[in-house]
Design brief:
Blueprint: E1 3-7, E2 20-22, E3 26-27, E4 34-42, E5 48-54, E6 69-74, E7 79-87, E8 97-105, E9 108-117
Parallel strand pairs: 3-9
Antiparallel strand pairs: 1-2, 1-4, 4-7, 5-6, 5-8, 8-9
């Protein structure tokens, strides 16, 4: 893990990693706040990372509780940086609390960080 905390706005269509604003696990929540961590992977070209973002219970547009966000990240180069995080959206109140972000490589945890949105 290279950095963690609050970041500048992330553009998912860009190769640019957002800039760290504040190294912290206590996030002062407001709409648009970006938080998470950056991993630096060396000699991993062709490998796959799996991740999960576990969050407080909030509902989707149909009123169902949203499950944790999960996914995979393909490592494209031998010196690869990967930002994993989220941005706070409306309504704010149901996003407050503990968010836990975990990344695995071949079933082994390689990064884990909990954030408290207050």
């Amino acid at each position: 893990m290279y950095s963690y905390g609050e970041y500048s706005k992330w553009n998912p269509g860009s190769k640019e990693i957002p800039k760290i604003i504040n190294f912290t696990t206590e996030i002062k929540a407001k709409i648009g706040t970006e938080f998470g961590y950056v991993l630096r992977v060396k000699q991993g070209k062709g490998e796959v990372l799996e991740f999960k973002i576990d969050h407080p219970p909030f509902k989707d547009e149909k009123g169902n509780i949203r499950p944790p966000f999960t996914g995979q990240q393909f490592i494209r180069t031998n010196n690869f940086e990967f930002y994993l995080g989220d941005c706070i959206w409306e309504p704010l109140n149901d996003k407050l609390g503990k968010w836990e972000i975990t990344t695995w490589h071949k079933g082994k945890v390689v990064a884990n960080k909990s954030f408290n949105l207050i």
